[in-house]
From TrEMBL:
GO biological process: prolyl-tRNA aminoacylation
Species in which this protein is naturally found: Candidatus Segetimicrobium genomatis
Subunit: Homodimer.
EC number: 6.1.1.15
Listed name of the protein: Proline--tRNA ligase
Length: 471
C-alpha cells in the first residue's frame, strides 16, 4: 500500500473520535504542524493559503468601509497594561513577559501583547478607524492546532468615535462583515447577537458575537466585536475637542477574528475522508490529474492546455508528478478537500471530453471539452450552496427550545448543540444553569422579542439566550 493511501485510512472515523479525527485531518491535509516551541504551531503553506483567503476577503471589506491598516509594537509596558483594571485582570493568567534585554534586567516588565488596546489607544487621540494584521500570545497549557495555541494570527480593529451611537454602529457593521465571511465564504451558518455580561471581553461594555455549531455538538465563538464604551478612554485619558468646545472622552471599539476560523472550517465540513473545502475559500478550486498510459505525451499536453484555459477563471492545480499513481493522487486531493477533481486520460482526449468529480457527492461526470469552464463554474456554485445548506440544516436540527432546567439537561444529552431558553438576566439564574448542565450562555440574539418566564426562577423573562457546551 502507498504511504498516502495508508494516511487516508489512518484518519479515525469522524463520529467515533472527533478530537483525534480533527488533529489527523489538520496534520495529514498539511494545514499545520507542531513546532519545537511547546504550545506554538507552524502553519504550513496550504493552511496559510486559507488564512490569506480570509485576509483578502476581510481586508477588502474593511477598506471599503473606511478602515486603514497600521502596525503597533509587539510589547506592551506593564504600567500601560495595568491602566484598565478589568482588562489586565482578564488577561493576566495568559500573559507572557519579557524581563531581560540581553543580559540586562529591564526596569519594567514588558508583556508580549495578548491584544493591543493598551498600546494602541494611548497612541491616538482622535476618532480613527484602524486595524492591524498581527499575531498575539496567550499562554495555554494544552495545544490543539488552530483552536488552542499560545500564539495565533488575527487582525485587531481599533476605532474611536465621537458618540456612543457611532461606536455601537461600528460594532454592528463589523459583525455583519464577519457574518458574511462565515456564511458566504466559509459556508458556516452562525447565530449572532451579544454575550451575557459574564462572557464579555475583559474591559468591554458589550460584546457582539457570532457562534457556530460544530458536528460534535459543541459551539465555537467565530468572531467578536466589542463596544468598549469610555472605559479605555478614561483609563488612558484619550479625549477630543468636540464642536461645543468641550473636551470629551472618545468612545471606542475593538474587534477580531483569528486563525481559529481555520479550525472551524476543518470541523464544520470535514468527513471520514478528510477535509472538505467550500469553493469560495479553497486554495485550489480544481485539481487536474492526468491518467497516463499510452499516448502519454498527448494526455499531458491536453492536461496542460486545460490548466492554462481554466486558470483564467479558476484556481487550478495540475498534478503531473510522475512518481505517483492517479489513484494515489485522488486520495490525497480528497484528503486535502479540493472541491472538484478533473481526470483526463487517453480515451477522454480521443473523445474530446474530461471527467469531473465533486468532493461533495463524488459521482463522475463526463463533460465535453467545450463546456468544461461552464460546467465547472456551476459545480462550484452548487457545491458552495449545498455545503452551507447542509451546515444550516445541522444547526437548525440541533437547536432545541427548553422550558425547564431538566429539559436543558435532556436536550444537551440527547440532541447536543444549542438550547434556547428564556432568561430574566440575573446572574444567579445563569449560574444555576451552568452548574446543572455544564453549558455556558453563548449568545443573546438581537431583535428577538421575548415573552414568558425565566426558565429558572419563573420571573418575567427579559431575553432569549442560547446555551451550549463550547470550545
Ligand atoms: Zn431567572
Amino acid at each position: 500500500m502507498t504511504p498516502e493511501r495508508e494516511a487516508v485510512l489512518q484518519i479515525p472515523k469522524r463520529d467515533e473520535n472527533f478530537s483525534e479525527w480533527y488533529t489527523a485531518v489538520a496534520l495529514r491535509a498539511e494545514l499545520a504542524d507542531y513546532s519545537p516551541v511547546r504550545g506554538f504551531m507552524a502553519i504550513r503553506p496550504y493552511g496559510y493559503a486559507l488564512w490569506e483567503g480570509i485576509q483578502a476577503y476581510l481586508d477588502r471589506r474593511f477598506k471599503d468601509t473606511g478602515h486603514v491598516s497600521a502596525y503597533f509594537p509587539l510589547l506592551v509596558p506593564e504600567s500601560l497594561l495595568q491602566k484598565e483594571a478589568e482588562h489586565v485582570q482578564g488577561f493576566a493568567p495568559q500573559v507572557a513577559w519579557v524581563t531581560h534585554g540581553g543580559a540586562e534586567k529591564l526596569s519594567e516588565r514588558l508583556a508580549v501583547r495578548p491584544t493591543s488596546e493598551a498600546i494602541i489607544l494611548p497612541m491616538y487621540a482622535k476618532w480613527l478607524l484602524l486595524l492591524q494584521w498581527n499575531s498575539v500570545v496567550r499562554w495555554e497549557r494544552a495545544t490543539r492546532l488552530f483552536l488552542r495555541t499560545a500564539e495565533f494570527l488575527w487582525h485587531e480593529g481599533h476605532t474611536a468615535h465621537r458618540t456612543a451611537e457611532d461606536a455601537d454602529a461600528e460594532c454592528r457593521l463589523i459583525l455583519g462583515i464577519y457574518r458574511d465571511l462565515l456564511e458566504d465564504i466559509l459556508a458556516i451558518p452562525v447565530l449572532s447577537g451579544v454575550k451575557p455580561k459574564s462572557e464579555r471581553f475583559a474591559g468591554a461594555d458589550n460584546t457582539y458575537t457570532l457562534e457556530a455549531l460544530m458536528p460534535d455538538g459543541q459551539a465555537i465563538q467565530a468572531g467578536t466585536s466589542h463596544f468598549l464604551g469610555q472605559n479605555f478612554a478614561k483609563a488612558f485619558d484619550v479625549k477630543f475637542l468636540d464642536s461645543d468646545n468641550q473636551e470629551k472622552y472618545i468612545w471606542s471599539t475593538s474587534w477580531a477574528v483569528s486563525s481559529r476560523l481555520i479550525g472551524c472550517l476543518i470541523m464544520a465540513h470535514g468527513d471520514d475522508r478528510g477535509l472538505v473545502l467550500p469553493p469560495q475559500i479553497a486554495p485550489y478550486h480544481v485539481v487536474i490529474v492526468p491518467i497516463l498510459g499510452k499516448d502519454e505525451a498527448k494526455v499531458l499536453a491536453a492536461a496542460r492546455d486545460l490548466a492554462k484555459t481554466l486558470s483564467a477563471k479558476f484556481r487550478v492545480k495540475l498534478d503531473d508528478r510522475d512518481a505517483y499513481t492517479p489513484g494515489w493522487k485522488f486520495n490525497e486531493w480528497e484528503l486535502r478537500g479540493v472541491p472538484v477533481r478533473l481526470e483526463v486520460g487517453p480515451r477522454d482526449v480521443a473523445a474530446r471530453q474530461v471527467i469531473l468529480v465533486r468532493r461533495v457527492g463524488g459521482a463522475k461526470h463526463p463533460v465535453p471539452l467545450d463546456s468544461v469552464v461552464d460546467t465547472l463554474g456551476k459545480m462550484l456554485d452548487q457545491t458552495q450552496k449545498e455545503m452551507f445548506a447542509q451546515a444550516k440544516t445541522y444547526l437548525d436540527d440541533h437547536t432545541t427550545p427548553a422550558d425547564t432546567v431538566d429539559a436543558i439537561v435532556r436536550a444537551l444529552a440527547d440532541v447536543k448543540g444549542f438550547v434556547r431558553v428564556r432568561w430574566c438576566e440575573s446572574q444567579a439564574c445563569e449560574d444555576t444553569i451552568r452548574e446543572r448542565t455544564g453549558a455556558s450562555p453563548r449568545v443573546i440574539p438581537l431583535d428577538e422579542k421575548v415573552s414568558g418566564n425565566c426558565v429558572v426562577c419563573g420571573k418575567p423573562a427579559k431575553a432569549w439566550v442560547y446555551y451550549a457546551r463550547a470550545y
